[in-house]
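Exercise 7. Given the encoded structure of a 256-residue chain, write a plausible sequence.
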């Protein structure tokens, strides 16, 4: 987090990652401790996480190094003093969802259920973060969309509706997460309905390849922004990231 000479100048870093519930590709190894160190090393100020376990009785009994706290709280540790969790999927063993870790105080947050039908449970976690030293606020939405195209289209409409109804048109906005948009339909939809720009497409001409993490081919994960400038976007896919999830992580610096 860097402040400029004027009170209005601020640069912060965002990171997004589908954590795969703390397991490596194909669920071969529990890697949450390594994942925490990798996330800490990026220096991110706001972290958008998908598929974070809030609890799982069977896993906690099988792994001796399973944390005593929910995964999002374990990942936040003492570095991100504020965090929010949106429970999406609930099952007999536990539950998982989206989470946001923030070095800025989270003034309020709300999880919006965007599940369409069937077993897939999806959500949009909307957080409002307070910028220290002033009255400015940053809106962040952590996204995890469906695997099915027709469901994603409905969920993109719900995302547009959320932005239109709950976020002031001049407010700084970052929307990040796992869009599962391998057909590349989201960029046009979100630009048309909410005026959002995808940071990799804006700076490099195309969305980043993030899946599978070891040999990224599909462009599934995104960082969209509005009323801010995003610079230095990066894909985190080499070791250690290549074995910490099935998705690569994305980051960018945001000028407010």
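Solution.
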């Amino acid at each position: 987090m860097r402040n400029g000479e004027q009170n209005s100048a601020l640069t912060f870093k965002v990171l997004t990652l589908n954590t795969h519930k703390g397991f490596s590709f194909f669920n071969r190894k529990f890697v949450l401790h390594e994942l925490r160190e990798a996330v800490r090393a990026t220096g991110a100020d706001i972290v958008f996480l998908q598929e974070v376990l809030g609890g799982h009785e069977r896993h906690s009994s099988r792994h001796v190094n399973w944390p005593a706290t929910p995964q999002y709280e374990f990942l936040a540790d003492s570095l991100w003093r504020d965090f929010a969790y949106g429970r999406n999927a609930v099952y007999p063993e536990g539950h998982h969802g989206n989470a946001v870790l923030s070095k800025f105080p989270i003034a309020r947050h709300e999880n919006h259920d965007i599940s369409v039908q069937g077993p897939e449970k999806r959500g949009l976690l909307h957080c409002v973060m307070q910028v220290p030293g002033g009255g400015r606020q940053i809106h962040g939405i952590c996204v995890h969309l469906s695997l099915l195209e027709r469901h994603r289209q409905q969920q993109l409409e719900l995302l547009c509706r959320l932005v239109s109804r709950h976020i002031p048109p001049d407010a700084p906005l970052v929307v990040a997460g796992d869009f599962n948009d391998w057909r590349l339909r989201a960029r046009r939809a979100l630009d048309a309905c909410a005026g959002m720009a995808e940071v990799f497409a804006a700076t490099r001409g195309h969305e980043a390849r993030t899946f599978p993490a070891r040999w990224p081919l599909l462009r599934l994960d995104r960082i969209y922004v509005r009323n801010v400038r995003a610079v230095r976007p990066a894909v985190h896919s080499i070791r250690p990231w290549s074995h910490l999830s099935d998705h690569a992580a994305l980051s960018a610096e945001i000028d407010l």
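Remark. Residues 2-255 form a domain with the Deoxyribonuclease I; Chain A fold (CATH 3.60.10.10). Students should compare their own answers with the one above.
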